[in-house]
Design a protein that fits this description.
Length: 310
């Protein structure tokens, strides 16, 4: 494929497409939750640090998506008929070399932001940030990509959920404890749910490509039950916080996400053996569940900070 032509225009179009609302929320929600919990726990909040953290997370996420584009193309998993936000190479005509260079460029920008954040807070951020970027690459890159294994959901939830929330909290307060991890768990569960939904959609193609994801091991029906369990656990976690002193009824707000979760599960249940395109509405409802729950969860933490409930 040629590197010439309308590459800048095509590149801008591809990157803009990757900044869909659910992509933005996947970066925004963990940063918002970590920062809101810092305000509740300590009364501290530095908006500049939160914005820098959000930009760094967004750059890493875009780079990770581009690595996925590159390696799915190299391994023959992406075709012109593939469904999803991908298709940078097979449909938009960008060269694999350009996609890899763009991914590395976004990593360089994220590294620059990481150096700034470390200067503002602690050098401890440098090895943690480097590890996060390495995991972002290894998620689809390298000889044994995490995304092709049964551990993709756990890795995505812990890295994009718990780790980002913990770092966001640390940037505001200068410390991090076990309570931050427990606060992060429902967000981690719903990030794992997004990957589960994606893998349900791509199950047959992934199996043909030699992947061994959790969804492939479970099969369609049990994978849908697993997705429902992730939604249920997140809801139960929010309900449990309603009973804790200083949190209270504000944590009923995330229950606003339940209709989207219900629709996602029902649509996936009805789509067994259906082509991937038929599952796109279920995918959208899964992403909406994550966005609605995450924003409501962050709002509940803010409200609990200013108006603690019994």
């Amino acid at each position: 494929m040629s590197d010439s032509g309308n590459k800048p225009t095509a590149g801008f179009s591809v990157f803009w497409r990757m900044l869909r609302p659910h992509t933005l929320s996947a970066s925004f929600v963990p940063v918002a939750v970590g920062s809101a919990y810092a305000l509740k726990a300590t009364g501290l909040f530095a908006p500049g640090r939160a914005l820098l953290m959000l930009a760094a997370c967004l750059f890493i996420q875009i780079a990770t998506n581009l690595f996925n584009e590159y390696y799915d193309y190299v391994r023959g998993l992406d075709t012109r008929d593939s469904v999803g936000i991908g298709g940078t190479i097979v449909r938009d005509g960008l060269s694999p070399r350009f996609v890899m260079a763009a991914a590395l460029g976004f990593y360089a920008a994220a590294a620059g932001l990481g150096l700034t954040l470390a200067a503002l807070s602690s050098p401890l951020l440098l090895p943690i940030g480097a590890l996060a970027m390495l995991c972002g690459y290894l998620y689809t890159g390298g000889p044994y990509p995490i995304a092709a294994s049964p551990f993709g959901e756990a890795a995505a939830g812990l890295l994009l959920g718990s780790l980002v929330i913990g770092l966001s909290f640390f940037l505001q307060t200068g410390y991090v404890g076990a309570a931050v991890f427990f606060i992060s768990l429902p967000v981690a569960l719903l990030i794992a749910a997004i990957l589960t939904a994606n893998n349900i959609r791509d199950r047959e193609g992934d199996a043909a490509g030699g992947r061994r994801t959790l969804v492939i091991l479970l099969g369609h029906r049990r994978s849908v039950r697993f997705l429902a369990a992730l939604f249920a656990l997140a809801a139960l976690w929010s309900a449990g916080l309603c009973l804790r002193s200083g949190f209270g009824f504000w944590f009923l707000l995330p229950f606003l996400s339940l209709p989207s979760a219900w629709r996602a599960v029902r649509l996936f249940q009805r789509s067994e053996n259906a082509p991937p395109a038929v599952m796109l509405p279920a995918m959208r409802h899964t992403a909406q569940t994550n966005t609605i729950y995450g924003l409501a969860y962050a709002a509940a933490l803010l409200l609990a900070a200013f108006f603690p409930a019994g």
